[in-house]
Design brief:
The chain is an alpha+beta fold. The chain has helices at about 45-55, 80-90; strands at about 35-40, 60-65, 70-75, 95, 95-100, 100-105. The chain has a 4-stranded antiparallel beta sheet, covered by helices on one side. Strands 4-5 form a two-stranded antiparallel sheet. This is RNA-binding protein 33.
Length: about 110
């Protein structure tokens, strides 16, 4: 018994995606950011605390603390680690302050 919408491939090849020009899309490969900006740090947050958070997702190349602006800039070795840090720690609370983590495109 052949029903409608059952996904049964008939002699005409229904139910299969046939490759044609309309299915092709051009995707630009932009360089992925390795740098994150951490803002809203508490004045009591140390570079050691922040470095341990950063290293929990992957190796970092550099960390620059800007205590007057209550922010830090960190560079990861891999873009995937920067993205993972942003997704894991954005709006995370450290030393009674919610930090904002953003990816920085160089």
């Amino acid at each position: 018994m052949h029903g409608r919408g059952r996904g049964v491939a008939g002699p005409l090849g229904r139910g299969r995606l046939m490759p044609n020009k309309q299915n092709l899309r051009v995707v630009e490969c932009k360089p992925q950011p390795c740098v994150v900006s951490v803002e809203g740090l508490s004045s009591s947050t140390t570079d050691v605390q922040l470095k341990s958070l950063l290293m929990s997702v992957g190796p970092i190349q550099s960390l620059q603390m800007l205590p007057q602006q209550r922010k830090a800039i960190a560079k990861f070795k891999e873009p995937a680690h920067a993205l993972a840090f942003q997704q894991k720690f954005h709006r995370h609370m450290i030393d009674l302050s919610h930090i904002n983590v953003a990816l920085v495109v160089e």
